């Protein structure tokens, strides 16, 4: 009787244990299925041709858009023979700012700089014919660098790759073998690369397993297409793909950003001249176009959005309001100028979405933009001085509207004794306002135009005025009765 009872209790315990294990396994399966059924937002960014500034602009713009859209995964669709090392480092740094999963799809080849960039991502997938490797540093012209310099660069690259590859199996050793010809790659007693050559791997070679536990040498998997890759990783229908379109503008932005200080200087000078002349003419349009090109170049380069251009436009409106509606108040114009300059700096700063303010607004982010702005302002002054000194007067200058106003300033400024005597002789004379003075504008005296300022109130065009004095830049006038 006791034996039968013991057998019954034992069988009951075994049955309950098996049932618990079955329920646990079922729950785990349901959890895995639930995870796989979540639709992943995937951004595919092309990395094609040589690694240079346009590729950096494409990738940076794509990463920022992916962050803005809260993407889960970024896939680099890679086919590159390599390229510039400095640009490669910038790309690697940009990839580190993406909070989600990063994948590389070696779509035929990831050579040299392409191998470095691939090593930065979480997983490296291969097309069946994919090849990766041969990552030794070379000069910009493709020639070998000096032996001592090469040793320094190789040592630095290997250290950086090891840091990026921690916890990723053999990746650090494999990429080191691609960088350093003197590095021997040996795993499980098997020499995979001897000294004296650089390592390159095919898709099948990258997928071979080594070590304990066995792990693929480099590859996370082989897929015919990116959709095939995503299906293998997330399951069919469990992802939504957004592909970044590359346009001709990335190539153009490479040159626009390089010339931005000069374009900025010319644009600021043109805007200044426009504000010093009546109406809206050649210089206003030219200045607007030049500064628009500056904003466009940095937008395409992935440095800024539309916001800086809007802030700049608001600054222009405030300066115009000061001139037209609030003369002598100063504050609106001062705020407007500060907004315009701040917008130019903002457009050149490499700011990332969702980045902490302490990091985003650090001095490093604005060092180069402030330097570019300073250079642009210096160039504006230099161009302005050259314009006043070397451009001859004539019908072309007159067509630009500013001949009389610049001439008037020069006469009032008293460049020479004769000019000073002429200006002094105008005090007490009457004339007529050619433009509205709010407070500045132009007046005509004895058939000649001059820059003029009214100290109080405003003067409408056509009103009679009298000269009460002058400054270094304009006549001081007041409205008088006829």
Characterise the protein shown here.
There is one protein chain. Helix 5 runs antiparallel to helix 6, helix 10 packs across helix 15 (363-390) and helix 12 runs antiparallel to helix 13. The chain contains 18 helices and 17 strands. It is 52% helix and 18% strand. The chain folds into 3 domains: 28-243, 2-enoyl-CoA Hydratase, Chain A, domain 1, CATH 3.90.226.10; 249-390, no CATH class; 397-479, Nucleic acid-binding proteins (OB fold (Dihydrolipoamide Acetyltransferase, E2P)), CATH 2.40.50. It has helices spanning 2-37, 53-68, 85-95, 113-120, 147-164, 171-179, 203-207, 226-234, 249-258, 260-275, 282-300, 307-324, 331-348, 357-360, 363-390, 395-399, 403-413, 417-426; strands at residues 40-48, 73-80, 101-111, 123-126, 131-133, 185-187, 190-193, 200-202, 209-210, 215-216, 221-222, 239-243, 430-433, 440-445, 448-454, 464-470, 475-479. By secondary structure, it is an alpha/beta fold. The longest helix is centred in the first third of the chain and has 36 residues, at 2-37.
Q: Looking at the structure, what is the overall shape? A: elongated
Could you estimate the helical fraction of the residues in percent? 40-55%
Distance between the termini: 135 Å
Specify Rg, calculated over alpha carbons. Answer: 35 Å
CATH-defined superfamily of the largest domain? 2-enoyl-CoA Hydratase, Chain A, domain 1
Main sheet record: 8 strands, mixed
Separate helix tally:
18
- Average pLDDT taken over every residue: 77
Strand content: 15-25%
Q: Which CATH C-level class of the largest domain is it?
A: Alpha Beta
Stretches where pLDDT is under 50 for at least 5 consecutive residues are 5-10, 27-36, 394-418
How many strand units? 17
Kindly identify the CATH topology of the largest domain.
Answer: 2-enoyl-CoA Hydratase, Chain A, domain 1
Broad structural category: alpha/beta
Question: What's the oligomerization state?
Answer: single chain
Any idea how many domains?
3
CATH architecture of the largest domain, please? Answer: Alpha-Beta Complex
């Amino acid at each position: 009787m006791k034996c039968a009872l013991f057998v019954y209790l034992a069988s009951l315990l075994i049955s309950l244990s098996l049932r618990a294990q079955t329920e646990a396994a079922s729950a785990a399966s349901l959890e895995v299925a639930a995870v796989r059924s979540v639709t992943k937002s995937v951004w595919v960014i092309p990395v094609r041709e040589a690694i240079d500034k346009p590729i950096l602009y494409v990738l940076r713009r794509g990463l920022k858009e992916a962050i803005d859209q809260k993407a889960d995964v970024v896939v680099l669709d890679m086919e590159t023979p390599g390229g510039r090392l400095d640009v490669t480092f910038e790309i690697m740094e940009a990839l580190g700012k993406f909070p989600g999963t990063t994948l590389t799809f070696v779509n035929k080849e990831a050579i040299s700089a392409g191998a470095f960039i691939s090593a930065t991502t979480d997983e490296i997938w291969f097309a069946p014919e994919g090849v990766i490797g041969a990552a030794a540093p070379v000069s910009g012209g493709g020639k070998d660098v000096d032996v001592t310099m090469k040793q320094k660069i190789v040592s630095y690259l290997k250290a950086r790759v090891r840091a990026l590859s921690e916890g990723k199996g053999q990746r650090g050793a494999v990429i080191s073998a691609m960088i350093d010809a003197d590095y021997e790659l040996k795993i499980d007693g098997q020499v995979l690369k001897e000294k004296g050559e650089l390592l390159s791997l095919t898709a099948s070679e990258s997928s071979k397993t080594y070590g304990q536990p066995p792990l693929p040498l480099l590859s996370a998997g082989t897929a015919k297409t990116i959709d095939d890759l995503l299906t293998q990783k997330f399951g069919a229908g469990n992802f939504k793909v957004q592909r970044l379109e590359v346009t001709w503008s990335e190539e153009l932005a490479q040159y626009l950003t390089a010339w931005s200080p000069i374009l900025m200087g010319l644009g600021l000078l043109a805007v200044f001249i426009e504000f010093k002349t009546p109406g809206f003419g050649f210089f206003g349009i030219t200045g607007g176009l030049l500064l628009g090109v500056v904003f466009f170049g940095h937008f395409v380069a992935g440095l800024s959005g539309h916001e800086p251009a809007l802030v700049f436009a608001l600054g222009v409106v405030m300066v115009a309001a000061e001139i037209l509606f609030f003369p002598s108040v100063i504050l609106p114009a001062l705020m407007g100028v500060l907004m315009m300059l701040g917008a130019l700096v903002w457009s050149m700063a490499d700011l990332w979405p969702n980045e902490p303010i302490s990091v985003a607004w650090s001095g490093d982010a604005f060092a180069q933009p402030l330097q570019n702005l300073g250079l642009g302002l210096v160039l504006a002054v230099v161009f302005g001085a050259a314009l006043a000194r070397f451009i001859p007067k004539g019908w072309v200058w007159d067509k630009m509207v500013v001949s009389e106003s610049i001439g008037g300033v020069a006469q009032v400024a008293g460049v020479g004794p004769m000019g000073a005597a002429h200006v002094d002789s105008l005090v007490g004379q009457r004339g007529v306002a050619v433009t509205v003075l709010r407070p500045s504008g132009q007046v005509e005296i004895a058939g000649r135009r001059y820059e003029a300022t009214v100290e109080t109130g405003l003067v409408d065009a056509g009103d009679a005025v009298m000269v009460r004095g002058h400054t270094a830049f304009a006549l001081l006038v007041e409205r008088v009765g006829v």
